[in-house]
Specification:
The structure holds 2 protein chains of 2 kinds. Chain A is mostly helical. Chain A has 2 helices and no strands. Chain B is built from 26 helices and 4 strands. By secondary structure, chain B is mostly helical. Chain B starts with a strand and ends with a helix. In chain B, the strands form 2 sheets. In chain B, strands 1-4 form a two-stranded antiparallel sheet. A two-stranded antiparallel ribbon of chain B has the order 2-3. The radius of gyration of chain B is 26 Å and the shape is globular. Chain B has a domain of about 170 residues: Cytochrome Bc1 Complex, Chain D, domain 2, CATH 1.10.760.10. Classes of the chains: A mainly alpha, B mainly alpha.
Chain lengths: ~50, ~700
């Protein structure tokens, strides 16, 4: 119904695609890093408040 | 390695703790008063300073920025020092931060009842206070980063990341949303208009919830929960994943506050998609919190602190599941503008923010006073009456929301709307009574807590400077092996970390907002939509002053149930001169988008003097003072000039004729009223309000009737 607002903007669809790609890339990066992280480091960090 | 001796600053923590308790009580008291006003208009106390429209923002600001704000600073100042093994960077900055923040709160408490407001939700404070907030926020950030930089701990624990994200994002949000053009010390116009103003406002509003009410509390959860239960967080890996995805996703979801409005469709869809995705990191946080309690539930039975945490985290989980559900368009169609939203935010505010704050206070005060909590029994009583209060608050509000939302949409078999708006208001009044009982129970619990805490404080003695020692950091640290991974490197570099957080947050904001700004020329201009006349503009400012937007929307969604009730649905092009936008987010009263020309001037006059003469059973406050107060039109020139600067096409030199036009139009209205035997001078404020109300939505009506 409000699509008429965007009739003259070409390629607006790219914004959705861009956001999805950026997020996926970001998520994969973080996940990869988490897989590589060693257990000792994680244990050390999670004990910080208790020191 | 040499061990360094230093002292933690507990006095500043104590000061913020006292402030959060004082303003918690004040904010909740005002909340109780506005809740009663919603079924008993006499509770407006017969004067303008305590009428609903003016003090509802006082309640929301007091809870968000005074109660929760001070609680955040209390929680951060205590935990940051310990996690960095360092005293706060500067006692002077700590004190400037504390007193500056309290002064801002006092300024808000004075200006809001006086009607000095921008009307943008949770950003109501006028421009001088906005500047003060910016300065004090910078002081907070300076102090925080100073502490982090001089820390004696190599890596930053996850709680600190949440604090950093809070600092940078709130700064960005506040500055972008506060772009306004001052016309006097107490009045400004939003830099943005209509659709763009709405988009910026709800980008701000949504993320204020995210980065003021959520991220600092998650940071505190990651510190105080392990402390209270004496075991590390369930999964540190999950906390990392949940941190980055949360701050990345949250920023995109703002448009879900504007579904079915005149906001471009693609932006609405983006908002919905990201809102659904948000369930994952939010629940990641909740699960991480609750599972930290695994194997320690026996402790929950006897420690009130853990009871508060358990219910607080559960409330967080409920609210963050409900939020995405509410952002589904079919659910939103019913929930938006109703009490359902009020229920939703209060599950968050009372359950998550309130209970987490109480838990932290009960844990922290005995420690910095080196004593035991005065009474565990009273704390347990507080827990139960508080929980009961939340239930008594939320259940009636959900019920009320469903009831009214469905009644608005109900048609008879003949195809006509089944209920008048007022019928739906009367239907839910008893539920509002129950809601205020819920609020009163919750407030009672808070008062009991304050008594308990004060008794604890008097029994102990504040350890203002707590001795501590830790080895200094080696300055020539060379990471080896697994410590060289990039994220760990990042955790050693707080400034880089801050910049990266900003980038992550800005990506979402930019992708969402830039197109809407760049296509400004593409928002279809409607030739019949003209700037407001000076009198209407003045009336609009009075509408803003009285907080009418708190109960009346100006946004007709494209549903048959709305077009039948209110008229033609709203178009983006109709708002191009609206600085600020006044779409509203709640319909306690009916939408006013097409109010113009619906009733004669005399109806409006009588209705404003006493709404119940025209609409028996109405719960609107009476506005007799508008008929007594004269308009202050001394700055009408400045207003016209300011509007022109913002792009409203008043012709050159019009400011000189504005006052004359204003008086002429006012006289037409007072003459018209006189013909109906209503005596009122043409310079009274009520005349301007009537002029504005009679203008609303008529530009489009005129086009349609001309076309016919």
């Amino acid at each position: 119904m409000f699509r008429n607002l965007l009739h003259e903007v070409t390629g607006i669809g790219i914004y959705q695609m861009f956001s999805l790609l950026v997020f996926t890339a970001f998520f994969v990066l973080i996940a990869l890093w988490l897989f590589k992280t060693k257990k000792e480091y994680i244990d050390e960090m999670s004990n910080k408040p208790l020191e | 390695m040499q061990t360094e001796k230093f002292q933690y600053d507990n006095r500043i923590v104590r000061n913020f703790a006292i402030a959060t308790m004082v303003f918690g009580i004040v904010g909740m008291l005002v909340g109780l008063l506005v809740a009663i006003q919603l079924y008993e208009p006499a509770a407006n106390l017969g004067n303008q300073y305590t009428s609903f429209g003016r003090i509802r923002p006082l309640h929301t600001n007091a809870i968000i920025f005074a109660f929760v704000g001070n609680a955040i600073f209390m929680g951060v100042y205590y935990s940051l020092q310990r996690l960095c093994k360092s005293r706060m960077y500067s006692d002077v900055l700590s004190n400037i931060h504390f007193w500056g923040w309290q002064l801002i709160i006092v300024a808000a408490a004075i200006t809001l009842p006086l009607g000095i407001t921008t009307s943008k939700e949770y950003a109501e404070l006028e421009w001088p206070i906005d500047i003060a907030i910016t300065l004090i926020w910078v002081v907070f950030g300076w102090n925080m980063f100073g502490t982090i930089i001089k820390r004696r701990e190599r890596h930053m624990y996850v709680a600190i990341w949440f604090y950093i994200a809070t600092f940078v994002t709130v700064a960005v949000l506040h500055i972008v949303n506060s772009f306004e053009l001052p016309i006097s010390l107490f009045k400004s116009y939003s830099f943005y208009a209509g659709v763009q103003d709405a988009l910026v406002q709800w980008w701000y509003g949504h993320n204020a919830v995210a980065f003021f009410l959520t991220t600092p509390y998650l940071g505190m959860m990651y510190y105080y929960l392990p402390k209270a239960v004496d075991r590390p967080v369930y999964s540190y890996k999950l906390s990392i994943l949940h941190f980055w995805t949360l701050i990345f996703l949250y920023i995109w979801a703002g448009p879900h506050h504007l579904l079915y409005t005149s906001l471009p469709d693609w932006a609405q869809s983006l908002g919905v998609a990201f809102s659904i995705m948000l369930i994952a990191p939010s629940w990641g946080g909740m699960i991480n919190g609750l599972l930290t309690l695994r194997g320690a539930w026996d402790k929950v039975r006897d420690q009130p602190v853990l009871k508060f945490f358990a219910v607080g985290i559960t409330a967080y989980g409920m609210a963050t599941f409900e939020g995405p559900m509410l952002s589904l368009k079919n659910v939103n169609a019913i929930a938006h503008f109703t009490d359902w939203i009020v229920a939703h935010v209060h599950v968050g505010a009372l359950g998550w923010n309130g209970f987490m704050t109480f838990g932290i206070l009960y844990w922290l005060i005995p420690r910095i006073y080196q004593t035991k909590l005065h009474s565990t029994k009273l704390a347990n009583f507080h827990f139960w009456i508080g929980t009961l209060g939340i239930l008594f608050y939320a259940v009636p509000m959900y019920w009320s929301g469903f009831t009214q939302g469905l009644m608005w949409k109900e048609f008879t078999e003949a195809g006509q709307l089944k209920y008048e708006f007022l019928d739906t208001t009367k239907q839910i009044l008893s539920l509002h009574v129950f809601r205020s009982i819920g609020g009163a129970l919750y407030l009672t619990g808070t008062i009991v807590m304050v008594y308990n805490i004060v008794k604890t404080m008097t029994a102990g003695k504040l350890v203002a400077n707590e001795d501590a020692e830790a080895p200094a950091l080696e300055s020539n640290y060379a990471p080896t092996g697994h410590a060289s991974y990039w994220h760990k490197a990042l955790e050693r570099k707080p400034m880089t970390f801050m910049v990266l957080s900003i980038v992550v947050v800005l990506i979402g904001g930019a992708v969402e907002m830039l197109p809407t700004f760049l296509i400004k020329s593409n928002i279809q201009t409607i030739t019949s939509v003209k700037p407001y006349t000076p009198l209407e503009l003045h009336g609009r400012d009075l509408y803003i002053r009285e907080g009418c937007v708190g109960c009346h929307s100006q946004m007709i969604r494209p549903f048959r149930s709305e077009t039948e009730r209110y008229g033609e649905y709203s178009k983006a092009g109709e708002y191009v001169y609206d600085h600020p936008f006044l779409w509203g987010s709640k319909r306690t009263g009916p939408d006013l988008m097409r109010e113009g020309g619906k009733y004669p001037n005399s109806w409006h006059y009588n209705h404003m003097i006493d709404p119940r003469t025209m609409s028996p059973g109405s719960i609107m406050p009476a506005y007799p003072f508008l008929a007594e107060q004269s308009m202050n039109v001394t700055n009408i020139k400045d207003k016209i000039n300011a509007m022109r600067t913002l792009g409203v096409p008043y012709e050159k030199g019009y400011e000189e004729r504005a006052l004359q036009d204003l008086q002429a139009q006012a006289k037409t209205i007072s003459d018209n009223l006189a013909s109906e035997k209503i005596k009122i001078e043409s310079d009274k404020e009520l005349i301007a309000i009537i002029a504005y109300l009679q203008r609303l939505g008529t530009d489009i009506k005129l086009t349609n009737s001309a076309a016919n």
